[in-house]
Amino acid sequence: RKRGDTMNAAHAARLSSTLRGVVGTRNAARLLEAAEAAEEAAALLRAAAKEAAEEANDALFAAIREGDDVERVEEALRNGAAVDRVKEADTMLVHAVFRGRNRIAKLLLARGADVHRLMHPRGTALHACARVGNAEAVRLLVEAGALVDAPDDEGCTPAWFAAENGHLEVLRLLAELGASVDTPANYGTTPACIAAQYGHLE
What we know:
Blueprint: H1 3-20, H2 28-66, H3 70-78, E1 86-87, E2 90-91, H4 92-98, H5 102-110, H6 125-132, H7 135-143, H8 158-164, H9 168-176, H10 191-197
Antiparallel strand pairs: 1-2
Helix pairs in contact: 1-2, 2-3, 4-5, 4-6, 5-7, 6-7, 6-8, 8-9, 8-10
């Protein structure tokens, strides 16, 4: 065990004893001592909870980085990991779909992950899918309410990124799901233009 954990356990035992000792008492000094002990206990518990939450968030990110093990993710969430935690400039959902961890993505969505959150530089989770050609996750996200024509900071839609990276299956899927393939980015380039520019047209 960590030294901090042992010290906290010792503190908890002492504080618990102090609090139990004032049950039913009308002694003002002892009640004030117990009140101070309760405040100290609350501070220790808040610190321990914060540390545990950070450990759970780190465990969640590690599970996404290292595989598609939903059991590890479920354990991290049970231990207090935040489903929309941002790590290395992306949400957990963006990290999952970008790496093809679609089982984890499905679990995060079921736990309320925000499909609309816009991150820089990858945009929304749907933008991340389009960048890497993750067609399965595109369907998952759209079914969860993701906007197929959501622009990023530069006006690029998921279809734009699918075209840029030559993921024509994803581009066709987005069009099937209602996305426009003619919406230009802020600087005027449409998905068709960017696909031609990179030699991705069939």
